Amino acid sequence: MEFVYYVLAGAAVGFAVGLTGVGGGSLMTPMLLMFGFPPQVAVGTDLLYASITKSTGIFMHAQRKTINWGIVGLMAAGSLPAALATTFLLSTVFSDAKEYAHLLTTSLGFMLIFTSVVLLFRNRIQRQSHEGSSAVLRSLQHHRSLWTIVMGVVLGVLVTLSSVGAGAIGTAVLLMLFPRLPSVKVVGTDLAHAVPLTLVAGLGHLFLGHVDWKLLAALLVGSIPAIYLGTHAGARLPDRILHPILVSILMLLGLKYAIF
Would you say 35 and 206 are in contact if contact means Cβ atoms under 8 Å apart? Predict the structure, then answer.
């Protein structure tokens, strides 16, 4: 019965992901914590879950030529070494996973808050980046290659600690640094970077013994068909209803784990 419960939980999150378009980490990891899984298991299992569920999207975008591989390479040059370095530090600085459990939950909380803020102001970020109305944004865009690598490093660390941010925050980075990149290429490029990042971070947690294979299998069984159903249902619901609900949920969850 336990396996069935996890399948149903995976289906619920998968449906929500398809419905809203928000990455599973923002919803899956908090749910696993509510089920009583240790933070390191929730994060590690969710990272591998994310890498698997998102991988099929790369092939679709590659066929449509909606991936800027040069940008992917710049982001990965920062994020992948940062993910490996974070895993190494967790394994050497701490003697036991319980010692950094609070670090993981606090990182999760702040990343959920950050994600909710990015979703709330995404249109404004996109508009100001495109117009170049901010001196800070113009400076960032002038040195975009360097800042793409730097932001990759930041994402590598935070995604490894929280499993959240490779999607929504990665998209925000692309919108700010590459305002002329078409929306479909923003999605494809962000996805092409998110998969290797979550895979490397997930394998790091696997090395640390933080992956529950039975749980992972159940989540995949439930979520993969549910994502498809949620995507079709989401096309029929107005964004003005889904968006505020999603932002509110992520903000509340973020406050829960960052503060309490």
Answer: no
Count the helix, strand and coil residues of the chain and give each as a percent rounded to the nearest 5.
85, 0, 15
In three-state form (DSSP H/G/I as H, E/B as E, the rest C), the secondary structure along the chain is CHHHHHHHHHHHHHHHHHHHCCCCHHHHHHHHHHCCCCHHHHHHHHHHHHHHHHHHHHHHHHHCCCCCHHHHHHHHHHHHHHHHHHHHHHHHHCCCHHHHHHHHHHHHHHHHHHHHHHHHCHHHHHHHHHHCCCHHHHHHHHCHHHHHHHHHHHHHHHHHHHCCCCCHHHHHHHHHHCCCCCHHHHHHHHHHHHHHHHHHHHHHHHHCCCCCHHHHHHHHHHHHHHHHHHHHHHCCCCHHHHHHHHHHHHHHHHHHHHHC
Residue-range domain boundaries for the chain: 2-259
Residue 173 pLDDT > 90, yes or no?
A: no
Torsional class of 163: left (φ above 0), alpha (ψ -120 to 50), beta (otherwise): left
The answer, yes or no, to whether residue 234 has pLDDT greater than 90, is: no
Q: Are 119 and 250 in contact (CB under 8 A)?
A: yes
pLDDT in the model for residue 131: 64
Task: Please check whether residue 118 is in contact with residue 125, taking contact to mean a CB–CB distance below 8 angstroms.
Answer: yes
CA-based nearest residue to 115, from 250, 255, 257: 250
Q: What is the 3-state secondary structure (H, E, C) of 122-138?
A: HHHHHHHHHHCCCHHHH
**What does the buried/exposed string (b/e) look like for 138-158 if buried means 16 or more CB atoms within 10 Å of the residue's CB?**
eebbeebeebbbebbbebbbb
